[in-house]
Amino acid sequence: MVTTELRMTRGDVGPRWRATITRPIPGSTAREPLPLTGCTLTFTARTAYNAETVVFTKVIDEGIEVEDESGGIIVISLEAVDTESLSNRPTRLVFDLEVIDTLGGIETVAKGELWIEPEVTFGA
Asked: For the chain, how many structural domains are there in total?
């Protein structure tokens, strides 16, 4: 699993993050791309790990594009509506990215913090 920090400006259209999802190679310290054919992917952001309310969720064809199924490459894209309702101050969200394989196995492949930075030009 990868732990990372992402940043964007509140209310912006089109922040895009490209990632290669990998898995460990048994008996090795190396990793290989995770084939995504038939898998479900969900990117979820909340204000805290234990918060019941979800700020936004992205799934395949609704914010997650699978660029290369066999190579495990995805692109996550956000829209203005995903963050424009947040207050215009620095805001820390937490996120994870889960993959559900064709057998129903769930693996969290990435998690971390998503920092929403305030915008200067808004309400125009």
From this structure: 1
Q: Which of 32, 4, 30, 25 is nearest to 94 (CA)?
A: 4
Asked, for residue 93, whether it belongs to a domain, the answer is yes
pLDDT-based confidence at residue 124 (cuts at 50, 70, 90): low
Closest CA to 64 of 88, 91, 86, 95: 95
Counting beta carbons within 10 angstroms of the beta carbon of residue 52, is it exposed (0 to 12), middle (13 to 18) or buried (19 or more)? exposed
27 vs 44: CA distance, rounded Å: 32
Identify whether 47 is part of a domain: yes
- Per-residue pLDDT tens over the stretch 62-90: 999 999 999 999 999 999 999 999 999 99
**Model-level pTM?**
0.90
What is the span of the domain harbouring residue 67? 2-117
The enclosing domain of 47 has a CATH number of: 2.60.40.10
